[in-house]
Task: structure prediction
Amino acid sequence: MSGMNKVSKLYIEAVLESGIQKAQSNLLFTRKTELNAESGNISLLRTTEDVSLSLTGITEGRKGSVSINKTDRNSIEKSIAELVEIIDAGQADPANEIAEFQQSEEFSRGSEEPDMDLMYTRLNAFLQRSSSRYPNLLLEQVILDHTARYRFFNNSNGVDFTSMRGAYNLMVMFTSKDGSNTSSFNYAAVSFPDLSEELHLAGGLDRLMQQSTEQTETQMIEGSFVGDVIITPECMGGFVHTLTGYLGDHSLVTQVSIYKDMLGEIIADERLSLHSRPVSDELAGGYFFTSDGFKAGNSTIIDRGVLKTFLLSLYGSLKTGGSRAVNSGGNYMIDPGDTDFSEMVKSVKKGILLCRFSGGNPSSSGEFSGVAKNSYYIENGVVKYPVSETMIAGNIKDLLNSVKHISKQTVNDGNSVFPWITFSGVTVSGK
Amino acid sequence: MERNILRKYANLFSGYTELRLQENRTSRISVVDGTVMGNSSSSESGVSARSYKGGSWGFASSPETDSEAIEHVIEAATENAVFLDSHLEKAMRQLPVSSAEGTWDYSTKRSVVSRKDKIDFAREVDSYISQKFRKLSTRTVVIHNLDMEKQLITSTGSNAYSMVPRSIMYAMLTVDTQDGPVQLYEAIGGLGQFEDVFARPSDYYSRIDSLYEHLLRKAEGVFPEPGISQCILDADIAGILAHEAIGHTTEADIVRGGSVAADYMDQTVASPLVTLVDFAHTAMGKTCPVPVHIDDEGTPAEDVTIIRDGVLKSYMHNRESAMEFGVTPTGNARGYSFSDEPIIRMRNTAFLPGTSSLEEMIQSVDNGYYLIKSSNGQADSTSEFMFGVTLGYEIKNGKLGRALKDTTISGVAFDMLKTVTAVSGEMSWNNAGMCGKKQMIPVGMGGPAIKCMINIGGR
Result:
C-alpha cells in the first residue's frame, strides 16, 4: 500500500482541476479473510478484497460527494464529472467546509496478514469445546475473520493522514435446545489484536453460552411492577448508542435532542462517567482520524454526571455554533464502580438482570420500551429464573439519574469496555 | 453493465461454481428544514465466485472486473474450497441441480431526470410542508434510490441478468411538546427508478396531510396500558410480523440453528384464517416490491407457502439446505453486494387477505388498540418478537380514541397467530423494508389488517 497516499493526493488535484474549489478524498482498502461455521461445522472460507473511494467537493458553499469502489483513471474521471453535476445541483450552506491543515501523520496498529492455520485451529478448537461442554447449545453461525484496513485521507487544505489497522473479529450466534424447549438466540461480537488466547475467553462469550443452556425453560412474570434492572456489559452498548444518538449532528442541528441545552449540566448520576476512546491501547478496534479529516483523540462525554461534550462533526459544529468533538464517537467506555457484581444482585428486591434488550427505536423524547431477552428475574437478592415475554420501559433521561450501583468488574469486547450497572425505577411487565 | 460477458469463463469452473458480476448504485438527497444537507451518490461493483467441494464452500471476490480479476476469483474460490475440504472430513454430498435462464430489467424507459430536478422535487415537497404546517419544529425529506444490477452464471447451466431498482421518499415531521419532541415519518415509493415512481410532488400531499393529522394527535397521545390486549394490526405491522416473527424462524438455516419451527412442520401454528407466503416475484397478479426470478445460486425462484390455513407447510431453502432437508430448492439464496456470499433470504413475505372489513374489525373491539405504523422489529428463534410502534390509537367501544405515544408490542408468534379472529380483505405492501441478516438487503413485507391478542408495552 506504500505510495497510495500520493495517489490520493492526485485525486485532490484532479478534483480541483475540474473547477471544484475545495476537495476531500477518503480512500479505503479492505482485505478480509473469513472462516464461517454453520450449525457447528466449518463450512466456508471467504477471502475478499475491496476498495472504497469517497470524493467530496465544495464550490461556492455547495457540497456533494461521490463514492465508488474503483481507482482506475476512467472511473475517477467519470466520478469527478458526476461530482461536478451533483455540486452544481446543490444548495449553498456556509457550514459546508473541509478540515483545516494539520501535520501529516501515519498510524499503524495490529497485524496486516492473518495467520490462516491458527485461525482454523482456534475456530476448530472452539467448535469442539462448545459441543462437548454445552451439548444442548447449537452454534447457529460462527464467523472468525481477520480484516486489514488501509485508510488514506487527503484534502485541499493539505491534510494527509494514512493508517493501517488489522484485527481479528469473532461473531458467534447461538441457541440452546432441550427436547422441544428452545432458548432465545443470543450472540457475541468480539475483536482482538491476535489469536494468542482461545476464542471462548474473548469478552463475555463463555458466560453467555453457559447462560444460554439455562434458558431453555423460562417463566413469565405475572403482572407488572416498577423495580431495578441490572444492565449487563453486553447489553449496555445499545443504551449508550441511544444516549449518544441525542448528542450527534442530526439531533442537534434539527434541535430535537433532549440534551440540546444541557452542555455543562448534570445529566446523570455523579458516579457515571462515559468516554469515547477510539485511540485507546485497551481496544483492538478504533480509528486514528475522523471521516471529515481530523486526527482523532479520546474524549470524556459524561464526567461524573456532567455532560462535557456533544458529538458534533465539523458540519454540525458550524451549523449549530457548537464545538467540534475531538472524535466521531464510538469505542465507548464507562468507568467501573466499587461494588462487586454479586453484591449488586443481593441488593435487588425485585428486578431483572437484563442480558439482551430487543427494543423499539427509542423515541425522540427519550422513551424506550422492549423485550428482556436472555434475561433473569431477581427477587430478594436472588436470581430466580430466566424470563420470557417480559417487557421493560423507561426514559433514558430518568435512567441516567437512577443509578444504584456500578460494578467493579468490566468486560472488554475489543470495541468497548462496560461494567454492570443497576438502575432503579424501570417498569417491568409480564402477562 | 455489458451483458452476457461471463459465459466464456465457465470452462474454468472445477466442480459446482457460481460466478456473479454485480453493481449496486445508490443516490441520496436529503433536505432538512429547507437546506440540502445530503447530496451524494455511490457505486459499488465487482465480481465474485463461490465453489463447492466435498461439503465445503470457497468464496472470493474482487472489485476489478477485467478478465484477469474474473479468472483470479474463480481460482481463489476454488482454492478456498479445496483448503477447507482438505482440513475437514465431510461425507461427499451432491447439491441439487437445477438451472434457469432469463433477463429481467426493471430500469426506466423514460427520459432520465437530472440530479437538479430530483433536488427540486425534494425541495418542493419540503416547501409544501413548511408553508402548510406551521407548528412543526423540524422536517426532513429524503429521496433514496438503489439500483441492483447483476449477472450470474453457474456450473449447472444457469445464466441470468437482472436490474432491480427501488426509489423511496421519506418525509419526517416533528413537533415539540411539553414532554419533548414527537416524530412521525412516512415512506413512499417502491420498485422502479425515480422516473417511474415519482411524477409530481403534489401527488403525495394528501399522504403528508394525513401524516400531519396523525402527528398532532400523537403529540397529545397517551401510554397504552401494559399487558395483553385485543389489537387490530394494520397492514404495515402485519407485514413486519410476517417477515420478522414467522419468516425468519422458517428460513432453513435458522431452522437448522435451533428455531422452534423445526418441531412444527405440518402442525397447526395459527388460526385457520392465516396463510403466509414468501412470494418470489408476483403476488395476486402484480409484480412484488422486490421481484426475484432466479436467485444467486441460479435456482428458479418459486413462491413458498409457509403457512397454509394455519398449518406450517414449508421452509425457505437454498441448494444446500434443500439437500439436507430432502426437498427442492426454493430460490431464496441472495447476496446484497458482489462481495457477499448468497445466504437464505426472504423476498416478499405477506399474509394473504381474508374476508373481513377493517371498519367492522375496529367496531368489534370494546377495549383495545389499533396499531398502524412500526419503526423496527426483531424476532427470535423461539418466534418471540418485538416491534416498535410509532402510530396507534385506543379503541373504546368500537371507536377510535386517543392516539398512543411510541410503544412496543411483543409476543410469541406461533401462539399469537392462534388468537387471530379476523383478517381484512385488502392487503398492502411495505415497499421500503431492509432486512439485516448478516448483510442488509431489500425485502418486501405485506399483509391485510389482523385482529389478535398481543402484549403491548406501556407505563
